């Protein structure tokens, strides 16, 4: 959004007399928060920089310079709010109905990639920040909650008996995560097309998991491996 409402610094006022009903005041705050979040996403997308200029953000949202600080408290909190779709994604993934832990894991990968390729400029910028160890955005994306979400999916495959005894769950999780990150890096720098991003990650996951799988689960993983491999070779 581009501040098209024409509202300016006075937009931050919550009623000159202070007598506005609570519901009206809260609705006004919610609307300003929404405009700031949309403005932040637009700026990240347009500038290719996950670092936000608060002055530019306020101007784009049509609010006073103080408003983003008043409503969010810090630039970090705004970045977290912009990443709220991560929570939406995790909520959707938590409601996957399949009882097959491998199906849930691969479905979670597909859902994540769908988010990324639907808004490539935004997510390429964020993932570029992930690969920059000096950028604070990295810690907002690669945080404990994110890791626990994916670790839980891997642990579920172990609990179901899909993984052979003696395979360390944490090392398996980290290896899969490296596969994911490597594919994302190729996508960010333009070496991997959006159409091949999901198949590439699925192929890596199937190959790693097949090597770690117990005997009864290898055929299912081999089918996934062959399917993703064929998709990649078709280009």
Q: Any descriptors?
A:
single chain, 235 residues, mainly alpha, Arc Repressor Mutant, subunit A, Tetracycline Repressor, domain 2, 71% helix, disordered N terminus
Tell me what the structure shows.
- By secondary structure, this protein is mainly alpha-helical.
- The chain has 2 domains: 9-82, Arc Repressor Mutant, subunit A; 84-234, Tetracycline Repressor, domain 2.
- 71% of the residues lie in helices and 0% in strands.
- It is built from 12 helices and no strands.
- The longest helix has 26 residues, at 22-47.
- The two termini are 36 Å apart.
What are the SSEs and their pairings?
Layout: H1 22-47, H2 54-61, H3 66-72, H4 75-82, H5 84-94, H6 101-118, H7 120-130, H8 137-141, H9 144-159, H10 169-188, H11 194-212, H12 218-234
Helix pairs in contact: 1-2, 1-3, 1-4, 1-7, 6-7, 6-9, 6-11, 7-10, 9-10, 10-11, 11-12
């Amino acid at each position: 959004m581009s501040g098209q409402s024409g509202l300016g610094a006075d937009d931050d006022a919550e009623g000159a007399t202070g007598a506005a009903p609570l519901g009206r005041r809260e609705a006004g705050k919610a609307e300003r928060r929404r405009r700031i979040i949309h403005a932040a996403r637009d700026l990240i997308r347009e500038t290719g920089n996950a670092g936000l200029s608060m002055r530019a953000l306020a101007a784009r949202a049509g609010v006073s310079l103080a408003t983003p600080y008043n409503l969010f408290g810090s630039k970090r909190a705004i970045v977290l709010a912009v990443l709220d779709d991560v929570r939406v994604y995790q909520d959707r993934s938590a409601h996957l109905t399949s009882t097959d832990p491998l199906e849930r894991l691969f479905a979670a990968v597909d859902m994540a990639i769908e988010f990324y390729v639907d808004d490539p400029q935004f997510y390429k910028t964020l993932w570029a920040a992930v690969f920059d160890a000096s950028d604070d955005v990295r810690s907002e994306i690669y945080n404990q909650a994110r890791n626990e979400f994916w670790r839980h999916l891997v642990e579920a495959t172990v609990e179901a008996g899909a993984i052979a005894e003696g395979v360390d769950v944490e090392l398996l999780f980290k290896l899969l995560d490296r596969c994911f990150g490597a594919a994302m890096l190729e996508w960010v720098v333009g070496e991997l097309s959006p159409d091949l991003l999901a198949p590439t990650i699925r192929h890596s996951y199937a190959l790693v998991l097949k090597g770690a799988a117990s005997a009864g689960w290898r055929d299912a993983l081999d089918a996934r491996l062959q399917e993703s491999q064929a998709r990649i070779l078709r280009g």
